[in-house]
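Quarterly update from the structural biology core.
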Amino acid sequence: MKWQRVPLGPLQTNAYILANSNKECIILDPGGDGQRLNNILRQQGLTPIAILLTHAHFDHIGAIDDVLSHWNVPVYIQEKEKNWLKDPALNGSAYFIPGQEILSKVEPTILPKEGEFSVGDFSFELFYTPGHSPGSVSYYFKELGIVFSGDALFQGSIGRTDLSGGSHEQLLGSIHQKLLTLPEETIVLSGHGSETTIEAEMDLNPFLNGFKSI
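Predicted structure, tokenized:
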């Protein structure tokens, strides 16, 4: 399997395309610029089989309907944010991009809270990692040595916690208890910025020093 990062939307949020040898793919966090994303898929001969969301803030969901206009695929989301796709106030678009509110009529498929999960030939471990938002999750692909952390953990930083349902202490707990327990060589693919590794964040991330579990 191969992954590629595609920055999309008003905040250039990292969408990811993970494809197998059969040219099937899953899309993670299609944040905007839907026609561009669809063109990439067509040019590479890829067929999406699912959209996986790490969470439902506006900059991670803006291209969902454009993708669904070409491919009928399920959209997976954590239960606590199941209504956010349809509510610009909840997903933040009403406040951050007024006049360009994002809402979708799709009925999302609810993820289990945690554990092993498969979509087609794609198997991964699902971690519930709230704090940036109440329904934030991370997707760990052990065989590939990668984890899609959404806006929980970045290179040298962590997600903001001043939005609705955010909690700084909860986010630190999620990072330490779920992400930093992964093998140190694991590549962290974040919602913004460049990739990093668990080892680098353990050693260098200033937001993670001195945390005490609660």
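The longest helix spans residues 168-179.
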